[in-house]
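WARN retry 2 of 3 for item q-0093 after timeout on previous attempt; input resubmitted unchanged.
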Amino acid sequence: MECCGQLDTSRCCAAGHPLKRTFACLILFSCCVLGLCAQSPPDAALLVDQLKQLSAGEQWQEVVRLTETSSPPETSHRSADLDYYYGMALARLGRWDEAARAFRAGIRLKPNDKRFPLELAGVAFKQKNYPCTVSNLRRALELDPEDSYASDFLASIFFLQNNLQAALKYWNRVGKPRIENVQAEPTPRVDPVLLDRAFAFSPAGTLRSSDLLTTERRIDAFGIFPTYRFNLAAREDGKFDVLFRSQERNGWGSSKLQGLLGLLRGLPYQTIYPEFFNLGHEAVNVQSLIRWDAQKRRLRASLSGPLHRNPKWRYGFQTDLQNENWNIRNSFTGPAPLLVALNLRREAVGAEITSFLHGRWTWSTGAELSHRDFRGVSPGGVLLPALLSRGFQLKQHSQLSYELWRIPEKQFTLRSGVSSQLGRIWSQSPHLFEKLEGSLAGHWFPSSRGEDYETYAQIRSGKTFGELPFDELFMLGAERDNGLWLRAHIGTRDGRKGSAPLGRNYLLGNWETDKVIHQNGFVTLKAGPFVDTGRITDPSSILGSKEWLCDTGIQVKVRVLGVAVGISYGKDLRSGNNAFYTTVGHK
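OK item q-0093 returned
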């Protein structure tokens, strides 16, 4: 029994030695692997600490050497911090493309680390790639909206691109820019006190985006600065001087040639424009129109200026005398039988007040007293009797314009407007009428700087209530006294109005894009396509468009010595009619 027991024990021990050795090897191998894995993070952390110290000492070449020898780019366990210091060193050595690759590698490892888009922005800036710079800075601000460095950097980029509104948007986040002086170059002839009151900002303060916008609205309302701009001049103390650079319109014009062009710009249309600007250096303007066309005689004059020498408010007085022959037809060309003929005589005087308290919104209100008479109306009773109401009319009108959205980086604005006209006519049967209009207009420059490819789109709608007279109807068409344009529908035929659609209610959309063809200090030439579409309705069987209208074409704009000339070619996509039209105005 004892022998058997010893034998069993001896055999078991002999067979167990290989298993023990194998098990021991596995344990030893596992410990080595675990030991190596445990040592890797300290080694990587040590390398990052070394790179950090070398970067603090600006030993950039050593940073690059140590990184490339200790952790080549193809190494799988490179850390985001290592990519950061490696990219920093490459950037300091001017190796921009390699630095950008290192920072992009860091973004892949840590997409929410704002350091990488900030450094990529710096690299792109050195390479003068401003769009890429802006894109990376905006990404950094998405990660940290409170980052003052990114806001300041982004503002500086827009400042270099002459996009002051965009620069202010980001500078204002960090309490910049501080203004030391406000200067005008050249010195305008308008009263300096009046001009100073138009500025919503002042020295020793911060230039706010909203204040600049308010100032621009008031300067525009003066009507004496056809072109102007605000520039910032950096000072050594980190502050800025504001420079107001402008061209000013005084008297008949800045020169005899400009005054003569302004006066006679409508001569091809039997019209002259006697005007006088900046009367008494108080931004008081007198503007008038004299038209001796036998078919549409007109005399119009207006006087406007700042109320009590306060640019926040502006008054206006107007008078308007009209004697027009109308032939209502369905087209300005081709076979179009005469539907109605009449002569309209109208005399009106009015006054209004406009507010410019804030840059984002303006409002105006006023009243008009008028008298109308209709003669030579063709027999047949085609028009409703209310349209031919004679007698006096008192009308109150109000208008509100509000800026809904502004993206200064994209030079995009979206404005809305609403207006109301409430009138009462004293004729054989006195009655009231109401005209409501609304608009939504977008203005966009695709580039962050300059005025190339200027795009403008607008949607307008109007509706009337009650019984209104003929001259209060809406018109969709190209006509010098009309603002609702369909550029392939001319509003006159043989010199008489009435060939464009008329009606009580309308919906109109306009879109156009202008490319700068040539520009210097004397002449600006632009050209581009346009699309107009709309519909106008009326209870009368002879008025209204009956269906949707769509016009498309191309236009050319020339601006020289403050005079703007527009030439358009439009095609009516429904009828196939072609139309050429020219306009001349002030700019």
